[in-house]
Design brief:
Chain A is of the alpha/beta class. Chain A has 18 helices and 24 strands. In chain A, helix 14 packs parallel to helix 15. By secondary structure, chain B is mainly alpha-helical.
Chain lengths: 513, 377
């Protein structure tokens, strides 16, 4: 019997969504066991059941040969299970050791024994090669380190099994490498790691065994060394997929968007970027590379008209758009797919049709004399639902009830239903399953081929490399490197620039720009 | 140019992961669900009322019968009910409008007072003696209310002033302003009462049903319901307003000036509140301005709006029901030994149940309603 055995796990959410339907999982002691699957495959539910957050409606769970019932995370922690969520739960102003000890502080009498906590955290960090200093406040640490603080929290509570929920989603390649070092060190010392992911190359690199889930069921369990990326993808999706966009080289046209000497400031008045210049030509995709928070998102917002420009010019189609309203900018032919579709890209409570027409409320096809032409609005929505294969029961359905991929398709459909001159795309496939990713990539590439200038920013380097014609690397609000996307440009090369480890000379930069 | 290595057209997508068990939530089924929820809230609240009445009354059956039947017992009481429905509808609409734009502006009370003041000044001026007294009074009340709604709106847009605080403060200012003006200038010399003279007939709402309070205000309420519904669901302004209410960041991104929409929503709601002020003072119920005439009535609109889920067409339905309870409780207060405050308990329970979107226990849903919530929820 395996170390962790889940048999026939079923979980139906109130409302009738079947998240797990007879899921089996067996994890051997001391292995890295990956659980992969598309969004909505039921991975997270299964992990929540393992960690005691959700209780299964059916099935049994056993740990080390004994059947267990978890009534809450506390029980799971007591049984030696720790979980690191995608969204960290850290107190930013507390130091690392305070965060780690919080809730289980060592005491001396009634006082918090800080010395003991520091020593313990330092010891764990060295033992598992996590390389985290216990003293600095958590808010000063990069994301990768914060994640390792979360791992420390679990180890501090004597976890023997660590569940990592999509740990690499927020990391730069070098940070991923460091995380993998830590995971290997955990395994060497007898821990077991369950690793949830959907980036397949990473899964194949780090894990020993892989369980594939689809639509709430286990599709199969395979050894990492016996399987290829393509086979895994096919298992996940249930059919052949080609995650590739063939880009024929083509001569880019005239410069559509020119940003010169741009300066942006954040809410506290500090510079987000200064003296930043770039240009995008018609028919090319310009990838903005960088760890999140280095200015690429802000530059996109400034072009879209959602962020105040402190200084500099943004010229689109031969006019300075800085003084123009969002509506006027859209009128010139700027379309944008925002980073966070739920916070910015959609009104989830409104219907699909209303979301689609929201950017065209000055368009005489849909609004005349201030009155809505409901027929035209509905017909347009029906047409786009068809054209973009959005899975929804009609245009009157609230967008919030759709799956992530379909929500994103609503955004894409709205922005690309008419050919834009300049397309701004941020994180187009974050949290979107493979099938929809494939579709969205093709749609963006098609917009480029039809002559749009595209600015693309993404946390997924694979996506940037697959789509972009040129790449600019942002670090602390500056462009530190520029490349033409040719064979041989590797994520690692980009990574060294993303982390600020090196910087191109002005000559190299100019060649890339 | 973007050809695939494998032949997988995106058109194959729907078949690949058809969920199968998703029923389309039609508008009717949603309405039915909401209605069912409201009905159950009312039933639970009524059961609570029943218990309270049994505990406090010496003759509980009489008290209950009065509560449940008295409003329809005479033409006069029926008139009281209709008048209450019209006014509750107006305040419910005003709140629904700002709530749809997700502004928690609570200024209907203040708008009501400034509207009433404006109508009073028109009615007691020489114009009030002419045919123009009625329409000009209504217009003045709506403009005054509109300005009073605009102020907290623009303060929020320009200065970031929290609308809850500013509207509540403005309410007090309006109440005390009305108090002050009545005492120092509007009360006829020598009168000991804190009330103005009766308005001239030309400035009063005409009666629709003789010997009742049913007057032009009812027509206004009906027109406002239809107008608000039309504005919200058939005009681009209404769509913008609702999109701002759903997600203001999205609205900005889509090119909608969220602040302008917010201010306009608060202004229009203010005009509705002002009109309600005119319905009070120019209507048959008062026909004059008295200090503190409103007595907290405006805030009943919050209950109406919450239970009606801010839907203009649902507002009068909820108002009818709630006005019935209010009138029943008033009559119970007069005719039996149970105080009218009982109805506050009912109101509080209904608000709690509806606002918390209470979920029924699964067994109750299966056995009583025979429905399950749709998978798309």
């Amino acid at each position: 019997m395996a170390f962790i055995e889940a048999r026939g796990i079923g979980r139906v959410y109130p409302g009738g969504v079947v998240a797990n339907d007879g899921v089996d999982l067996s994890v051997e002691k001391g292995e890295v066991h990956a659980v992969v699957g598309e969004n909505g495959a039921g991975k997270s539910t299964l992990m929540k059941i393992l960690f005691g957050i959700e209780r299964p409606d059916a099935g049994t769970l056993s740990l080390d040969g004994r059947q267990v019932h978890f009534d809450g995370p506390r029980d799971a922690i007591d049984a030696g299970i720790g979980m690191v969520f995608q969204h960290f739960s850290l107190v930013p102003s507390f130091s690392v050791y305070e965060n780690v000890a919080l809730g289980s502080e060592p005491r001396k009498g009634i006082r918090f024994d800080r010395e003991a906590a520091i020593a313990r955290v330092r010891g764990l960090s060295e033992q598992f090669r996590l390389n985290v200093d216990p003293m600095p406040p958590v808010r000063t640490l990069p994301v990768g380190q914060q994640q390792r603080v979360e791992i420390l929290k679990a180890l501090y509570r004597n976890a023997r099994v660590l569940i990592l929920d999509e740990p690499t989603a927020v990391l730069a390649p070098q940070e991923v490498a460091e995380l993998f070092v830590a995971i290997r060190s955990l395994i060497e010392q007898g821990c077991t790691v369950i690793f949830i992911a959907h980036k397949l190359p990473e899964v194949l690199e780090i894990s020993d065994t892989i369980t594939v889930m689809r639509q709430g069921r286990t599709v199969g369990t395979v050894k990492a060394k016996d399987v290829t990326e393509h086979e895994l993808a096919t298992m996940m999706v249930g059919r052949e997929v080609a995650l590739r966009v063939d880009r024929a080289p083509r001569a880019a046209g005239a410069e559509v968007c020119t940003v010169s000497n741009l300066r942006l400031v954040n809410a506290r008045g500090a510079d987000v970027c200064r003296d930043l210049s770039l240009g995008v030509r018609a028919g090319e995709i310009l990838g903005l590379v960088g760890v999140e928070g280095n200015g690429q998102a802000e530059v996109m917002e400034a072009i879209a008209g959602l962020r105040h420009v402190a200084d500099g010019r943004i010229v689109v189609a031969d006019q300075d758009i800085v003084p123009l309203s969002v509506l006027r900018r859209r009128g010139i032919g700027i379309a944008s797919i925002p980073e966070d579709r739920i916070a910015e890209g959609l009104a989830t409570g409104a219907s699909v049709a209303e979301n689609i027409v929201a950017t065209r409320l000055k368009d005489r096809r849909y609004v005349r004399n201030g009155l809505l032409d409901l027929k035209a609005i509905k017909a347009n929505a029906v047409r786009l639902i068809e054209q973009f294969s959005i899975r929804v029961n009609g245009p009157a359905v609230p967008v919030g009830t759709l799956s992530g991929g379909n929500m994103q398709k609503v955004v894409v459909a709205r922005e690309l239903s008419e050919q834009p001159k300049l397309l701004l795309v941020s994180q187009p496939t974050r949290g979107v399953d493979l099938g929809a990713t494939q579709f969205i990539w093709k749609t963006i590439a098609a917009a480029r081929d039809a002559g749009a200038a595209v600015l693309l920013s993404s946390a997924d380097l694979g996506e940037l490399l697959a789509l972009s014609d040129r790449l600019l690397v942002f670090y602390r609000g500056r462009i530190v490197a520029a490349f033409h996307n040719r064979e041989g440009l590797s994520p690692e090369t980009l990574g060294t620039y993303m982390l600020g480890l090196s910087e191109q000379s002005p000559e190299e930069l100019r060649a890339g720009l | 140019m973007t050809t695939d290595a494998t032949p997988t057209a995106p058109a194959a997508l729907p078949a690949a992961t058809a969920a199968g068990n998703m029923k389309p939530p039609t508008r009717l089924s949603i309405a039915g669900r909401e209605l069912g929820r409201a009905a159950i809230a009312v039933i639970i609240a009524m059961i609570a009322t029943l218990l309270i009445v049994f505990f406090v009354s010496k003759s509980p059956v009489d008290a209950l019968m009065t509560l449940l039947t008295a409003p329809f017992s005479r033409v006069r009481t029926f008139g009281l009910w209709v008048d209450d429905v019209a006014k509750l509808t107006m305040t419910g609409l005003a709140f629904s409008l700002v709530f749809q734009a997700r502004q928690f502006a609570l200024g209907v009370q203040g708008q009501l007072y400034v509207g009433a003041l404006a109508a009073t000044y028109v009615a007691l001026s020489p114009i009030g003696q002419t045919w123009a007294g009625l329409p000009l009074g209504v217009l003045a009340a709506m403009i005054a209310g509109g300005i009073y709604g605009f102020l907290p709106g623009i303060a929020k847009a320009r200065l970031g002033a929290n609308e809850i605080v500013s509207t509540l403060m403005l309410n007090y200012i309006a109440i005390e302003l009305c108090n002050f003006l009545v005492r120092v200038s509007l009360v006829p010399p020598g009168s000991g009462l804190l009330t103005t003279d009766k308005f001239p007939k030309t400035s009063l709402y005409p009666v629709l049903v003789a010997n009742t309070r049913i007057d032009l205000g009812l027509i206004f309420a009906i027109l406002c319901v239809l107008g608000t519904w039309f504005a919200l669901y058939r005009t681009s302004w209404g769509l913008k307003l609702r999109l701002v209410g759903h997600n203001a960041r999205f609205a900005e991104y889509a090119g909608i000036k969220a602040n302008a929409i917010m201010v306009s929503a608060m202004t229009v709601a203010g005009a509705l509140g002002g009109l309600l002020g005119s319905m009070f003072v120019q209507g048959q119920a008062f026909g004059q301005l008295t200090v503190l005439f409103e007595g907290g009535f405006a805030f009943e609109g919050i209950l109406i709006a919450i239970v009606a889920r801010n839907r203009p067409l649902a507002v009068p339905v909820v108002a009818m029901f709630y006005a019935y309870l209010r009138q029943g409780a008033q009559l119970m207060n007069i005719r039996t030994d149970v105080p009218a405050e009982v109805i506050s308990v009912v109101a509080a329970l209904i608000i709690l149940l509806v606002a918390s979107q209470f979920g029924l226990p699964a067994w109750l849903k299966r056995n009583v309603l025979g429905t399950r919530r749709g998978a798309t929820r």
